């Protein structure tokens, strides 16, 4: 990775260059460009650390943060693009890519958090100094509104990037929905995830503005078959029958865009995916007054083991007809939806109380798929109409994004094929 990315593209010279520190950053840049090489964030910009601290490779055919083993924490941000200048947007995506390369490798943004010109604000905000990469992944997506004509992208809008229909029971807040660009930051350390979004927002100042954001904890899905399945805020194991990050065949079939799905307007999506984000409020107080047997009927699984009705073990094959017709698992199962299969990657959230003495808590549902028209939409259409769980949940935010393929190398950048 070049040390002077911004400078080469015509922006102001870097502070380190001005004061003659160019060599140190080159070592860092070269290491970061190589992928999962962890770097110190303690101000010694030159030294790769021996313990990787869990750096996830940034470069590859697919973006990290989809099939990657789910990290503990989430900071998700949806941005509105404020600039009307296509070239300025392209430059921002390049700058974001270079910053993302560094942060996912555990390095500071740009010239770092200190040591530069005292007259200028530091490039990095500093709160991640001394923290490990913590398996940080940064995943970008482009919303339908980005293709409205402002940036000459109308004829690049894929057919799969539809407006989601209004489902029965939806109570969507526009201030928590939509957005031109999203960035999903996942990490095992919340401060690392928050630092990443904050620094991207800072780089984008004047060009993009955060429309809404969501913090998440307690992953509600597993993409690692051998790991213990996490529990959601209703106390049930969640993610039992998810697609595992190691199941390359199922990922190719249900998650990655390829073949005929990557033709015409969607050619730039080859290797990408589609992301549905739903903020789902969970009425935990009502749930906590619900008898155990009713809770188990609602999901179609038992609370302790997570086994499907009539079976003993969590990973036993569900027998759908043994479940109540309105049970969540029966309705969401691929066999009830023409084979529709999605990769779930959601997180729990609590955002204080709602003014009525109830927790503002729920599931920030994230799901990746090859095509929402054959994935999320049929499943949610069925759930919204019939799911017994609806008595305890409400969808209050919604967004859909086209997630481009991965950044191949240090010369590539987020969205290059889209803007080509
Ligand atoms: C449209 C897709 C889905 C929404 C929205 C959704 C909301 C939601 N789910 C739970 C809890 C559980 N879901 C479980 C399984 C499950 N859920 C979906 C889809 C949506 N869920 C699918 C496709 C599946 C798998 C079905 C199958 O193949 O058997 C489970 C059971 C354990 C598991 O397999 O993961 C739980 C528990 C909540 C609380 C919720 C909204 C708040
Ligand atoms: Fe579910």
From TrEMBL:
<dbReference type="Pfam" id="PF20628">
    <property type="entry name" value="Dyp_perox_C"/>
</dbReference>
<dbReference type="GO" id="GO:0004601">
    <property type="term" value="F:peroxidase activity"/>
</dbReference>
<keyword id="KW-0408">Iron</keyword>
<protein>
    <recommendedName>
        <fullName>Deferrochelatase</fullName>
        <ecNumber>1.11.1.-</ecNumber>
    </recommendedName>
</protein>
<dbReference type="GO" id="GO:0020037">
    <property type="term" value="F:heme binding"/>
</dbReference>
<dbReference type="InterPro" id="IPR048328">
    <property type="entry name" value="Dyp_perox_C"/>
</dbReference>
<keyword id="KW-0479">Metal-binding</keyword>
<dbReference type="GO" id="GO:0030313">
    <property type="term" value="C:cell envelope"/>
</dbReference>
<dbReference type="GO" id="GO:0004325">
    <property type="term" value="F:ferrochelatase activity"/>
</dbReference>
<dbReference type="InterPro" id="IPR006311">
    <property type="entry name" value="TAT_signal"/>
</dbReference>
<dbReference type="InterPro" id="IPR006313">
    <property type="entry name" value="EfeB/EfeN"/>
</dbReference>
<dbReference type="Pfam" id="PF04261">
    <property type="entry name" value="Dyp_perox_N"/>
</dbReference>
<keyword id="KW-0560">Oxidoreductase</keyword>
<dbReference type="InterPro" id="IPR006314">
    <property type="entry name" value="Dyp_peroxidase"/>
</dbReference>
<dbReference type="InterPro" id="IPR048327">
    <property type="entry name" value="Dyp_perox_N"/>
</dbReference>
<keyword id="KW-0575">Peroxidase</keyword>
<feature type="domain" description="Dyp-type peroxidase N-terminal">
    <location>
        <begin position="63"/>
        <end position="217"/>
    </location>
</feature>
<feature type="domain" description="Dyp-type peroxidase C-terminal">
    <location>
        <begin position="229"/>
        <end position="407"/>
    </location>
</feature>
<comment type="similarity">
    <text>Belongs to the DyP-type peroxidase family.</text>
</comment>
<dbReference type="GO" id="GO:0005829">
    <property type="term" value="C:cytosol"/>
</dbReference>
<dbReference type="InterPro" id="IPR011008">
    <property type="entry name" value="Dimeric_a/b-barrel"/>
</dbReference>
<comment type="function">
    <text>Involved in the recovery of exogenous heme iron. Extracts iron from heme while preserving the protoporphyrin ring intact.</text>
</comment>
<keyword id="KW-0456">Lyase</keyword>
<keyword id="KW-0732">Signal</keyword>
<keyword id="KW-0349">Heme</keyword>
<dbReference type="GO" id="GO:0033212">
    <property type="term" value="P:iron import into cell"/>
</dbReference>
<dbReference type="GO" id="GO:0046872">
    <property type="term" value="F:metal ion binding"/>
</dbReference>
């Amino acid at each position: 990775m070049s040390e002077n990315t911004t400078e080469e593209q015509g922006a102001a010279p870097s502070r380190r260059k001005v004061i003659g520190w160019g060599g140190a950053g080159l070592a860092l840049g070269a290491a970061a460009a190589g992928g999962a090489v962890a770097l110190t964030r303690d101000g010694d910009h030159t030294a790769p650390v021996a313990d990787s601290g869990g750096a996830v490779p940034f470069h590859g055919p697919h973006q990290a943060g989809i099939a990657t083993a789910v990290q503990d924490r989430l900071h998700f941000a949806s941005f509105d693009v404020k600039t009307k200048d296509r070239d300025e947007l392209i430059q921002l995506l390049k700058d974001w890519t270079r910053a993302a390369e560094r942060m996912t490798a555990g390095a500071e943004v740009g010239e770092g958090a200190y040591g530069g010109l005292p007259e200028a604000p530091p490039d990095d905000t500093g709160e991640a100094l001394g923290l490990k990469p913590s398996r940080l992944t940064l995943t970008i997506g482009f919303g339908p509104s980005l293709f409205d004509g402002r940036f000459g992208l109308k004829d690049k809008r894929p057919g799969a990037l539809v407006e989601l229909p209004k489902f029965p029971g939806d109570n969507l807040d526009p201030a928590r929905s939509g957005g031109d660009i999203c960035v999903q930051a996942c990490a095992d350390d919340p401060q690392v995830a928050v630092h990443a979004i904050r620094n991207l927002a800072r780089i984008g100042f004047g060009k993009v503005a955060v429309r809404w954001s969501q913090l998440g904890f307690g992953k509600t899905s597993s993409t690692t078959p051998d790991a213990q399945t996490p529990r959601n805020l209703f106390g049930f194991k969640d993610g039992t029958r998810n697609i595992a990050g190691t199941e390359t065949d199922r990922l190719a079939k249900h998650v990655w865009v390829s073949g005929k799905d990557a033709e015409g307007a969607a050619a730039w999506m080859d290797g990408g995916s589609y992301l549905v984000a739903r903020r789902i409020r969970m009425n935990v107080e009502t749930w906590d007054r619900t008898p155990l047997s009713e809770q188990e009927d609602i999901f179609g699984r038992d609370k302790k083991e997570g086994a499907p009705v009539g079976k003993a073990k969590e990973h036993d094959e569900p027998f759908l007809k043994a479940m109540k017709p309105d049970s969540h698992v029966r309705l969401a199962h691929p066999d009830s939806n023409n084979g529709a299969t999605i990769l779930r990657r959601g997180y729990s959230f609590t955002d204080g109380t709602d003014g009525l003495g109830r927790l503002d808590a729920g599931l920030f549902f994230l799901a990746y798929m090859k095509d929402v028209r054959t994935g999320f939409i049929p499943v949610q259409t069925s759930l919204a109409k019939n799911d017994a769980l609806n008595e305890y949940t409400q969808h209050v935010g919604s967004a859909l994004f086209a997630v481009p393929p991965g950044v191949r190398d240090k010369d590539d950048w987020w969205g290059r094929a889209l803007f080509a």
